[in-house]
Task: inverse folding
């Protein structure tokens, strides 16, 4: 697969993901008429379903990262993709994420430019982002090793669950976090809160890599002992 095809897949996938996240947040909030639980249910369901579809369709082209934490995490584990490809993925993801937010705004008649005002800060939020991102990376790293065909469904299930059991509603993605600073809608976050979210996400990704290596080494050793 040519690099430009991979970069295009990452761009389109991240664009679509943000359009889904923000668009379903707008629709959910409008239909729920002030009921945040219903709005969150709509947002979580649409995000999980959309993510499953995007991974299945674009995974064979780029690996369907759509997330700098995933790109960096896989690089730490596999030394793939290489640095130049990683950089291209990160740029494609960030640009796609921003355009995805603007697309959602345009579809719902919202102003394109609207910096976020929703406060998402504090230790519980940061811990939630560490847990959400760590769990996402572990789902991918372990899933592709033991159940590779199930990875799209596993990722979708984790994201849906993490929307509900984390205080932050599981951004788990630096590109998503940055792009969501550009919306005042249900899915938004104020720009001042984004750096701590991203730091927590990267820590969670690094922790997932450490745990995955320990688990996979233990699994390989157990298999070798069994064969002996």
Result:
């Amino acid at each position: 697969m040519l690099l430009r095809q991979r970069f295009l897949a990452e761009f389109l996938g991240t664009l679509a993901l943000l359009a889904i996240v923000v668009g379903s947040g707008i629709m959910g909030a409008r239909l729920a008429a002030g009921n945040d639980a219903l709005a969150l249910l709509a947002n979580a369901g649409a995000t999980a379903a959309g993510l499953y579809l995007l991974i299945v369709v674009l995974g064979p082209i780029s690996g369907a990262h759509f997330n700098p934490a995933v790109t960096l995490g896989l690089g730490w584990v596999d030394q793939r993709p290489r640095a130049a490809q990683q950089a291209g993925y990160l740029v494609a993801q960030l640009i796609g994420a921003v355009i995805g937010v603007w697309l959602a705004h345009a579809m719902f008649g919202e102003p394109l430019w609207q910096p976020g005002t929703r406060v998402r800060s504090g230790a519980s939020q940061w811990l939630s982002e560490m847990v959400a991102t760590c769990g996402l990376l572990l789902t991918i790293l372990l899933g592709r090793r033991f159940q590779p065909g199930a990875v799209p469904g596993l990722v979708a299930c984790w994201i849906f669950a993490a929307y509900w059991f984390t205080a932050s509603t599981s951004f788990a993605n630096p590109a998503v976090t940055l792009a969501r600073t550009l919306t005042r809608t249900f899915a938004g976050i104020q720009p001042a809160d984004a750096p701590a979210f991203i730091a927590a996400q990267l820590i969670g990704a690094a922790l997932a890599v450490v745990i995955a290596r320990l688990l996979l080494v233990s699994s390989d050793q157990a298999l070798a002992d069994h064969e002996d």
Observations:
- The first helix runs from residue 3 to 32.
